[in-house]
Amino acid sequence: MHEELKEKIAGEIAMSDAPGSTIKKWREEFGISQQDLSRKMEISPSMISDYESGRRRFPRTLTVHKIVDSIIEIDMERGGRNISRFKFSSLDDAVIDMREFSKGISVAEFAEIVQGTTVNSNFDAERALYGYTIVDSLKAILSMSAFEYIRLYGWTSERAILFTSVSYGRSPMIAIRANPLKPAMVIYVRPKGVDELAIKIADIERIPLVRTPLTEADLADRLRRLEV
């Protein structure tokens, strides 16, 4: 359970639009002071303060894992009173719908079906998709382990991942950038806007990034009726 909790916390930090605030949230959730955390990590309290306030750049993956490991270790040394409060959800909590196709459908065709608008330019519009997954991004952050994240891809990564509960979409693209397995297409369902960093990452990864005005229910209905 400790490893699953570590993955949950590290994943939420990595996918957060404000990683410093998320680090602070989890530190305080466990009742750990900046001094105690810095002592465990053998760094100065000012470094923890700088990360949490955003004065320091987003910590490297190794640093994030060291922070999370230290939080869990401190709690275990105190008897694990906070660790025992956490229960974990399964992949089913985050995935709204998932389907494989028997034949490919192009990125351009799929975007048209979901009434999508593409917000980046560096991608292959004729790339074939062989499935899709609709996922609640907030539940994914809160409940999914790294292993469960990989299972979003079903039989193949040549699929569209549709994220609901998205405000501006920085977090999903940061998570995709950090993971070796990439989807063939990313769609934001009714976002407030699209973050510039998300667009930049999409171009770097050559993944079409699309926004759709359709509701979650409309999308599920349209995609279920696809004859592919």
Descriptive notes:
This protein is of the alpha/beta class. The chain folds into 2 domains: 2-85, lambda repressor-like DNA-binding domains (434 Repressor (Amino-terminal Domain), Orthogonal Bundle); 91-224, HprK N-terminal domain-like (Udp-n-acetylmuramoylalanyl-d-glutamate--2,6- Diaminopimelate Ligase, Chain: A, domain 1). It has 12 helices and 6 strands. The chain has helices at 2-15, 19-29, 34-41, 45-53, 61-77, 91-94, 107-113, 137-143, 146-151, 170-178, 196-205, 216-224; strands at 95-106, 117-118, 128-136, 160-164, 185-189, 209-212. The chain has a 6-stranded mixed β-sheet. Helix 11 links the parallel strand 5 and strand 6 (209-212). Helix 3 (34-41) crosses helix 4. The longest helix has 17 residues, at 61-77. The mean pLDDT is 88.
Mean pLDDT: 88
Q: Spatial order of the strands in the main sheet?
A: 1-3-4-5-6-2
What's the CATH class of the largest domain, please?
Alpha Beta
SSE string: HHHHHHEHEEHHEHEHEH
Descriptive tags:
228 residues, alpha/beta, 434 Repressor (Amino-terminal Domain), Udp-n-acetylmuramoylalanyl-d-glutamate--2,6- Diaminopimelate Ligase, Chain: A, domain 1, 12 helices, elongated
